[in-house]
Amino acid sequence: VLENQDLQDSIKPQKVEFRSLNFNSTLHWQPGTARDARDTVYFVQYKVYGQSTWQNKDDCWGIQGHVCDLTSETSDIQEPYYGRVKAASAGVYSSWSLSCRFTPWRETMIGPPTVTVVHSNKSIILKLQAPRSPYKRKRGSQIPMSNYYDLLYQVFIINNLLNEQHRVLVYEGKDKVIKIEDLRPGVSYCIMAKTYVPMLDRSSAYSSRQCTVL
């Protein structure tokens, strides 16, 4: 029995946590301390905070990986959720490891906007698109994150003559089309943008760099 207890403890999943980007929410965990855990499989359950019964996640029942997609199970984005994981190896089951409480609306990371650059002779025109959520409208198009939050866009310009790292904030606001004027012909400029959520005081990562020579 002691050996079993040791095995139970050593295969128990660790660091169970939700990670979420634009409401694509996955549960992650790390394997236990057992040295030979190759044949370990994992079982995932989830529930809404306050409910008494846990739901099995069928796609993540007896899996070998360390990640489980719970995007559709956490689609009520204002609700708080929990996930939990247990492991089995050689017929022995660990106890459950619980995640922290996870509320998608509050905790999801927002992605950067999609940036399209159109340039004329002394100016750059940018078209910005909010990142998309995984949830769909009746017609099938994905609902943008701007439906869920009041988003601002932050646009940065890098003049490659001056310094790679010198990013200048040239615009912050809600416009989807932005014109940056009074630029020098023949100079290479790079544009990067972020999404900012004032209510949560949270910024996205930078968008990928769009570079252009006027």
TrEMBL record:
The keyword Signal applies. InterPro entries: FN3_dom, FN3_sf, Ig-like_fold, Interferon/interleukin_rcp_dom, Type-II_Cytokine-TF_Rcpt. Residues 12-107 form the Fibronectin type-III domain. Receptor for IL22. Binds to IL22, prevents interaction with the functional IL-22R complex and blocks the activity of IL22 (in vitro). May play an important role as an IL22 antagonist in the regulation of inflammatory responses. Coiled coil: none annotated. Pfam families: Interfer-bind, Tissue_fac. Keywords: Disulfide bond, Receptor, Repeat, Secreted, Signal. It comes from the Eukaryota. One of its GO terms (molecular function) is cytokine receptor activity. Signal peptide: none annotated. This is Interleukin-22 receptor subunit alpha-2. It is found in: Secreted. Belongs to the type II cytokine receptor family. One of its GO terms (cellular component) is plasma membrane.
